[in-house]
Amino acid sequence: MTSIKVNILGKRYPLRVKEDEVEITHEIARYVNQRMKKYRKELPNQSITTVMVMAAMSLAEEAMDTGDKEQSADNDDRFEQINSQLEQMLEELKDQNKLTMEEDQ
């Protein structure tokens, strides 16, 4: 496993990934960050949790649509890998959000 850091909405998150997943994880993080920024801009008065949920729903819909169009085993493996990384990032974002909320109280 390799330790890397990714940036989502201006916060750096440490991740441990397999050596052969470093590049794809960075690509995923850039894509997720782009999507989060889009929703943050469109929903400026919403909580970060709402922004995360909306972005996650959008990403899931996109993955499902693409999965319906392309049924090859290679794509299924790639989506599974991307989904796993997105779930890990979402959990880390949730944990970070909880810490921020606890600090505010």
Question: What does this entry look like structurally?
Answer:
It is a single chain. Helices cover 71% and strands 13% of the residues. It contains 3 helices and 2 strands. The protein has helices at 22-42, 48-69, 73-104; strands spanning 2-8, 11-17. Helix 1 (22-42) crosses helix 3 (73-104). The model has no long low-confidence stretch (mean pLDDT 83).
Question: Can you give keywords for this protein?
Answer:
3 helices; globular; two-stranded antiparallel sheet
Helices and strands, in N-to-C order? EEHHH
Number of strands: 2
Largest sheet: 2 strands, antiparallel
Beta-strand content: 5-15%
Fraction of residues in helices? over 70%
The strands making up the biggest β-sheet line up spatially as 1-2
Task: Please work out how many helical segments DSSP would assign.
Answer: 3
Rg from Cα: 15 Å
Q: Separation of termini? A: 36 Å
What is the general shape?
Answer: globular
Task: Give a topology summary.
Elements: E1 2-8, E2 11-17, H1 22-42, H2 48-69, H3 73-104
Antiparallel strand pairs: 1-2
Helix pairs in contact: 1-2, 1-3, 2-3
Give a quick precis of the structure.
The protein has helices at 22-42, 48-69, 73-104; strands at 2-8, 11-17. By secondary structure, it is an alpha+beta fold.
